[in-house]
Amino acid sequence: MQARILLIVGGGIAAYKACELVRLIRKAGMSVRCVLTDGGAQFVTPMTLAALSEQAVHTSLWDLKDEAEMGHIQLSREADLVVVAPATADLLARMAAGIADDLATTLLLATDKPVLAAPAMNVRMWQHAATRRNVERLRADGVTVLEPDEGPMACGEFGPGRLPEPEAILRNIQASLGTSGRLSGRHVLVTAGPTHEPIDPVRYIANRSSGKQGFAIAAALAYLGARVTLVSGPVTLPTPAGVTRIDVETARDMAAAIDTALPADAAILVAAVADWRVEPSGSKIKKQGTPPSLSFAENPDILAGLAADPRRPALVVGFAAETDDVIANATAKRARKGADWIVANDVSGDVMGGADNRVHLVTEAGVEDWEQMPKDQVAARLADRIADALA
User: Fold this and answer.
1) Which active-site residues does the annotation give?
2) What is the per-residue pLDDT across 143-200, written as a single tens digit (0 to 9) for each?
3) 4-177 and 187-390, same CATH topology
4) Residue 173 and residue 83: Cα distance in Å, rounded?
């Protein structure tokens, strides 16, 4: 049966991208019906969306013909997924508050189907405390709110707030619906983020990992139909659509979570796990005039341990974040750890926390050098390679 998408187009300059999103949804074999807000109609016309969707476009709660048949209820229940793109700061706020004062917000309140929102707004609006509260409330209510892209904006500023590209929104739509399929029936384990090794109740040892690459890989695998278990260290990223997330803090917590999550068909260990830990003090270590003496112990080697486990996944992929001799160190790590593949990258720049990555895929067959690209594109390419390997 053809999946049915209800697309709500909010009022912002990014509304023009809704036209491409409609085209991609149709190309992917789904039907799409559009609801255009008053603000959205300032940027795109009902005629454009109707021509692309080959469906009537709905604009008013007070349409006599539609509402004689309780049209907003029918619209809210017929779809398999409700998508809001662009989701402006105002629209997110009204969604979070449960306001129903136009067609879009009324059907959002009336729907019993999953909702996915793709925000787009000025960087300061996105970072404002009110918007952060609204996003947290919506996620707690079960709405999938994507992270906006980072980059230059129509207002001339730079930062997070750009509407995710239509291709990325489509991947999230498909992941929410489980419609892609190449990894259908497969269980894939992904680790992401840093680990925090406590020194005392207020201090810990950590690294700069943001978790962005691991979360992007989890999303890309879910898009291909995999059942994804994401074991994440402490990060503030939203859980990708269709992914089961387990939050951990320390390396030993992560090792235990992985053990519990097995068996799996593949494991993609992206997390930057701390190599060392200390025995934490039960109370805050006071400044005494001389630095405290810390005694270190080695953390479990999660990658090597998984590669040697009798329940070993068919494909074990590790990551190597290096600052020198990237390929040589990654090649040696693959052999030493017993991994099938190592994905290596140079982290001497702003990769940790940045939007882009340039990686080298080290396998038994040799080394593939991938060009620099956004992390979600790295994830999509790696997910395709994983699907090929498991086919």
Assistant:
1) 155
2) 999 999 988 877 778 889 999 999 989 988 988 886 657 898 899 999 999 999 999 9
3) yes
4) 8
In order of 34, 104, 222, 266, the CA distances from 82 in angstroms are: 10, 10, 19, 32
Residue with tokens 């990654």: 330
Q: Which two tokens stand for residue 209?
A: 């990992």
Extents of the domains making up the chain: 4-177, 187-390
CATH class name, domain 4-177: alpha beta
For 276, residues 6+ apart whose C-beta sits below 8 A from its C-beta are 197, 205, 296, 297, 298, 299
Q: What is the dihedral of CA 19, 22, 23, 28, to 10 degrees?
A: 160
Superfamily of domain 187-390: CoaB-like (3.40.50.10300)
pTM over 0.70: no
Q: Please list the alpha-helical segments (H only) found in the chain.
A: 17-27, 46-53, 64-68, 71-78, 89-97, 103-110, 123-127, 129-140, 166-177, 212-223, 251-261, 302-308, 326-337, 375-390
